[in-house]
Design brief:
About 45% of the residues are buried. The protein has a 7-stranded parallel beta sheet with strand order 3-2-1-4-5-6-10, with helices on both faces. It is an alpha/beta fold. It is built from 12 helices and 12 strands. It has a domain of about 250 residues: Rossmann fold, CATH 3.40.50. α1 links the parallel β1 and β2.
Length: about 350
């Protein structure tokens, strides 16, 4: 039986990577449900959008009737829930949207999916699963030692991570209370092609190419575990297909880097690839500027991904060095995409300074 999956937030960064992977490397049918907010862009799916196994529904997960209609129309056997507001700085400036989408939207989707699942025949009930995709930021931060595991207690620091922690708890409670077949994943920082330029790596690349400053928060020594988005997409499909119901899987790239290391690596690659540099500079490192730190900025994230490796046989294929080189090459070759996704409402300005 060919599987059919509904992916919420499928026009976003990670969601579009999942859909491209599903269409290019499996025989699954894919329904993309996306509201198309500022960070969602169907151009990220242009290479697969003509597939007979792909269709798109422009729907807000907070719209109960519309979500119900999509489920009844397409009859998916799995839901992968990626739709979320995801930028920490934006959550500091405007937490309300994060509460609405990430908490209320997840609740609405759970209720609709629960009713849909209950109406399925017994075979359909046994096969169905709801996969909730979350972040390692729900765990708070680490000192210089240790790793997040699936048993790490939650201690979110920002409105964004608090909203994702809440949605994680809602999903697990629907599993415990109603017997709803759920699985949860928490991932480290993603990077790669089609990443909206408010996030660190694409922001630095595009600013550098235009000769703009490269703003580094605080001393730049905050540590993140970097995961290439296509590796993450493979992991997510592995989990929704083979993961054990009721379980949580942490997904990490095994690539701990300080933010300042990431920025200097990007400058090094760009120095090698860009012969004529902007604004008369001779070295992209000249653009690095240290700015006031983000309020509540977590010091370090690091994931222990041994469970998904041992249980499901997944591990990342890309090192940070290979992944970051591919990422820079993609942005250098796809400036049109970058221009298209910046609709004028976001000009790569500083957000979330707490004032």
């Amino acid at each position: 039986m060919r599987r059919k999956i509904l992916v919420t937030g499928g026009a976003g960064f990670i969601g579009s990577a999942v859909i491209r992977h599903l269409i290019e490397n499996t025989d699954w049918q894919v329904v993309n449900l996306d509201k198309l907010t500022y960070a969602g862009n169907l151009n990220s799916l242009s290479e697969v959008s003509n597939s007979e196994r792909y269709c798109f529904e422009q729907v807000d997960i907070c719209d109960y009737a519309a979500v119900k209609e999509v489920l009844e129309k397409h009859q998916p056997d799995s839901i992968m829930h990626l739709a979320a507001e995801s930028h920490v700085d934006r959550s500091i400036d405007g937490p309300g949207e994060f509460i609405q989408t990430n908490i209320v939207g997840t609740y609405n989707l759970l209720q609709t999916a629960l009713e849909y699942w209950r109406a399925l025949p017994n075979d359909g009930k046994k096969f169905f699963r709801f996969h909730h995709v979350s972040t390692d930021e729900v765990y708070g931060d680490l000192d210089k030692a240790g790793y997040f595991t699936e048993e790490t207690s939650y201690a979110p620091s920002s409105p964004y991570s608090a909203s994702k922690a809440s949605s994680d708890h809602l999903v697990r409670s629907w599993g415990r209370t109603y017997g709803f077949p759920v699985v949860v994943t928490n991932c480290s920082n993603n990077y790669g092609p089609f990443h909206f330029p408010e996030k660190l790596i694409p922001l630095m690349i595009l600013n550098a190419l235009e000769g703009k400053s490269l703003p580094v928060y605080g001393d730049g020594k905050q540590v993140r575990d970097w995961l290439y988005v296509e590796d993450h997409a493979r992991a997510l499909v592995k989990v929704v297909a083979e993961g054990e119901l009721g379980e949580t899987y942490n997904i990490g790239g095994n690539n701990e880097k300080q933010n300042i290391e990431v920025v200097k690596t990007l400058c090094k690659i760009l120095n090698e690839k860009v012969e004529v540099k902007p604004n008369g500079i001779s070295d992209f490192n000249e653009l690095i500027t240290y700015v006031k730190d983000r309020p509540g900025h977590d010091l370090r994230y690091a994931i222990d991904a041994s469970k998904i490796k041992n249980d499901l046989g997944w591990e990342p294929e890309e090192t940070f060095e290979s992944g970051i080189a591919k990422t820079v090459d993609w942005y250098l070759s796809n400036k049109d995409w970058c221009d298209q996704v910046q609709d004028g409402s976001y000009q790569r300005e500083r957000l979330g300074d707490g004032n």
